[in-house]
């Protein structure tokens, strides 16, 4: 992976990482061992560390309230280049969050610690549950614990770099 104009501070991507309800409880939930994090602060540190290696700015926001996530998106989407979102318990019903993410017109990646298809099949096999967010997401990364976030970040930054190269004519066979 190569960064476009990584020495130019103006070329530094700003990535929002949004966490929905219950994500701040990382490490306190019982029976989940698909990640090694002890707290949301550790997740924030990991994402910022990888963001630093990629030379991008991370803006991390978490709320247990859908309205706060929507308000954050409405107020700040113009200031970011891409979004990583873990909708948490909003996954299977939040048309509001999906719509707000679409309105940003920014690429966004949905992330989950756990494989949501496997999870939904286990907890409610008689009901077909699925993510409302996935339908308009640029991509989805799930099942890798905290590494879902780092994989999403690497993929999103690479996508932004690729789009920037195409827009400026770099990397094309002209």
UniProtKB/TrEMBL annotation:
This protein's species is Corynebacterium lemuris
Indicate the enzyme's highest-level EC class.
lyase
Q: What is this protein called?
A: 3-dehydroquinate dehydratase
> The organism sits in which domain of life?
Bacteria
Q: What is the catalytic activity of this protein? A: 3-dehydroquinate = 3-dehydroshikimate + H2O
Pathway in which the depicted protein is active? Metabolic intermediate biosynthesis; chorismate biosynthesis; chorismate from D-erythrose 4-phosphate and phosphoenolpyruvate: step 3/7
The record's keywords, sorted A to Z, are: Lyase
Q: Which family does it belong to?
A: Belongs to the type-II 3-dehydroquinase family.
| Pfam assignment, any one | DHquinase_II
